[in-house]
Structures are given as C-alpha cells and as structure tokens.
Amino acid sequence: MNQETREIYGLYLRCFPGLYLDYEPFCRRLSLHSPATQRLLHREGDTLAGVCLTEPGAILLLCVDPRFRCQGIGSSLLQKAEELRREDGSLRLGLGSSYLFQGVPLLSEDMPGFFQRRGYEASWTSEDLTLKNPPIPAPPCPPDIHFRPATPGDFPALLAAVAQVEPGWVQYYQAPSTPILLACRDEEILGFTLFGPTDESFSHAPGTRMAAIGCVGVLPSARQQGIGLKMVETAAAQLLEQGAQELYIGYTHLSPWYARLGFRPRLRCWMGEKGMQK
Questions:
Q1: Which tens digits make up the pLDDT trace of 82-127?
Q2: Comparing 94-98, 192-196, 243-247, which segment has the lowest mean pLDDT?
Q3: Exposed e or buried b for every residue in 155-189, given b needs 16+ CB within 10 A?
Q4: Which of 77, 133, 202, 206 could be a cystine partner for 19, CB 3.0 to 4.6 Å?
C-alpha cells in the first residue's frame, strides 16, 4: 500500500507541478492512510496513468498522467466513482473537498468543461491567495481595539463568538493546530483568526517556509470598522517576521478584500457538484 501511495503522489506531482506539497501533508490532506478513502487506479504497463480518490459524497482527486490523456481514462475512472457513490446512497457528489482542492483547479479552460459535459454544475468559484511581501498597511481601526494571542481562559467566549460568525468553524477553534489572534475591545472578543506555520499549503518549490491565515471572523455588530483588515495585517506581519517566506489564505470568495493588503490569487477552483440519481 505504501508503494501505491507513493505512486499516487508521483502522479499528482506530474499532473500539478506548480502546486507542490510534501509527501506526508499530501497524504494527510487526502486521508490516504485511511481505508475510508477509496482508490480507483488505471495502469498502462508498469505506469500509474490515472487515479480517482473518492469518499462518500465527494471526488477528492481525479488526475491522468499528461502522457495518457484524451484516451477515456478520466471518464472511466469518474464513472466508476459515481457508481460507488450511488451504491452508498450519496445524494450529491462534490468535486474536491476542503482538504486538498476545494473544487476543480482552474488550470486550463477545459478542466471544468470535462465535468460540465458529465452533468456537474457550479454556482461559484473559490480562490486561494498568497502574499510574499510585508502587507500593505490597512486603514486605522478604532483606537480602543487591541490585538493579542488567545489564552486558554478565552475559549468559552471565543467559541461563542465563532459560532455567531460561522458555526462550521467551531471545530477548527476547539482544538486549533496553530495560534489564534484575537481582536478585542477591553476584554470583549470582537474578531479572531487562526494563523501559523503550515506544511499543508501549496508552495512553488520544496523547502519554502509557508504560513497560513484562516477562518477570519468579526462579530456582525463590529463590522465595517476596519477591525478584520487590521487583524489580518497584524497576523501577516507577525508571520513574516517569524520567518515565513510565503503566506497562504485558502478557500475564500473575498479576494478583493484581501487584495487591499496585497494578497494575490494563487489558485482558483470551480466548485462543481452533481445530483446523484439511483
């Protein structure tokens, strides 16, 4: 199984050379060490020519070696994955997940077309963003706002604040893998973000020191005051000062807002999905 997993990783690198991930974070993001991730493989002789990774409700990865494209391999793998998902009762099938690609990477014009011709639709496009230079200074926010790291005593109020902004984020704040930066007025938590080093963001080359900012939120009652933008600027500046070479923000539809700090698009994903008929 380990050799097969290495082959899948090698195929990924051949298909997406500009979106580098080290081997272990690649495996983590696709749960490749878990039996819940089903593997559909196509070989040409001794070469792994195509792979489709799937779990209930999702196609996690579908890629075909550039040398073997336009031969029906991708279509066959996708059809087999759809049959598996019908058998387990999935009502909808999404392309991607929040772990590797959140949708179909828009690296060529035909990538969404392949799926559109097979009944997939998307209502929006997500973006991943990067920043390598110090952030553009944000406009001042109210002078009584201060930014500080979260402490264990903050968690009851923090989780309540996160639930107000986006209930789906609570799971990431309950057991965070990175530090948390808070925006506060006195002791009241008005904003929050996860920020810290990561090996799970796409880099341009091996060895790049990456850091990520994610799940940025401000309470509805405190918005339109510049608090969120100043909080992200503060987090970005700290990460670069700590040695990060590139900052990453994934899975967002707010790229014009982040662009005010200098973040630029790194990857766009077509958020396709399909209703499954039995």
A1: 999 999 888 899 999 867 899 999 987 678 999 999 999 999 999 9
A2: 94-98
A3: eeebbebbeebeeebeebbeeeebebbbbbeeeeb
A4: 202
Please tell me the distance from the alpha carbon of residue 117 to that of residue 110, in angstroms, as a whole number. 10
Q: Give every CB contact of residue 181 below 8 A, 6+ residues apart in sequence.
A: 147, 148, 149, 150, 192, 193, 195, 231, 234, 235, 238
Planar angle of CA 149, 161, 192, nearest 5 degrees: 35
Q: How far apart are CA 110 and CA 231, in angstroms?
A: 38
Residue 278 has pLDDT above 70, yes or no: no
As a whole number of angstroms, the distance between CA 185 and CA 157 comes to 13
Distance of CA 106 to the CA centre of its chain: 14
- C-beta atoms surrounding 254 within 10 Å: 13
Are the C-beta atoms of 55 and 37 separated by less than 8 Å? Answer: yes
d(CA 34, CA 54): 12
Which tens digit of pLDDT belongs to each residue from 63-78?
999 999 999 999 999 9
Q: What is the CA radius of gyration of the chain?
A: 20
- Put residue 102 in one of left, alpha, beta given phi > 0 → left and psi -120 to 50 → alpha: alpha
How many CA atoms does the CB half-sphere of 81 hold within 13 Å?
32
pLDDT, tens digit (0-9, with 9 covering 90-100), for 141-177: 999 999 999 999 999 999 999 999 999 999 999 989 8
Instruction: Name the residue type at position 3.
Output: Q
Q: Say what the alpha-carbon torsion angle 216, 219, 223, 227 is, to the nearest 10 degrees.
A: -50
pLDDT at 1: 61
